[in-house]
User: Fold these one by one.
Assistant:
Number 1:
Amino acid sequence: MDDQNRRLREQLERLAADLKRAKSVDEVGRTILHELQQDVQDLLTRSGEVSGLQEHPIAARLRQGIQHFEMTHPTLVALMEQLVNTLSAMGI
């Protein structure tokens, strides 16, 4: 596994852990978190394979999460922004 894929996997694992710990979210936030949890698990089961991610909805959902949680969950937003940057650097 190359360095970029390893970094992506590490960030996905951190985000998965933080998503599970997220508290005090409204109904829209719960939906976003649930969808992101599914996306993260899907990507983690790929064992770091990047092929086919161009069509994956996680980047759009991360942006939606960043917008929704920016005032209430800054740590979660920081992780989402890191992941968006990593995906962008990979051309996704």
Note: DSSP finds four helices and no strands in the chain.
Number 2:
Amino acid sequence: MGTEVYRWRLSSELKSDLEREARLRKTSASAVLNLAVPDWLKQSTVNVGEDVEQRRLHEAASNCFGTFAGRNSRRAETGRQAILQRLRQGRRRFRVLPATRP
């Protein structure tokens, strides 16, 4: 058995579930936790890798963030049409400025 003590607050529903599982297994609640936590930690480690991948994808996409250059004061009203027109004309006329970061 472990020698470290760790305390935290549980909802009454979670505490009841934990105690019920301990009774079914004819063991203590701490023994149930000692069985469950290592499995959860293994699963959680997989999610960390997914987070790293998500950060990598976000960083790659951030190179595409920016603003359109121009002097059209009605751009908010006509933006959709302007983008579609530029896409139809091809990429050579599509100028994107890098995003400013605070």
Note: The beta strands are 66-68, 96-98.
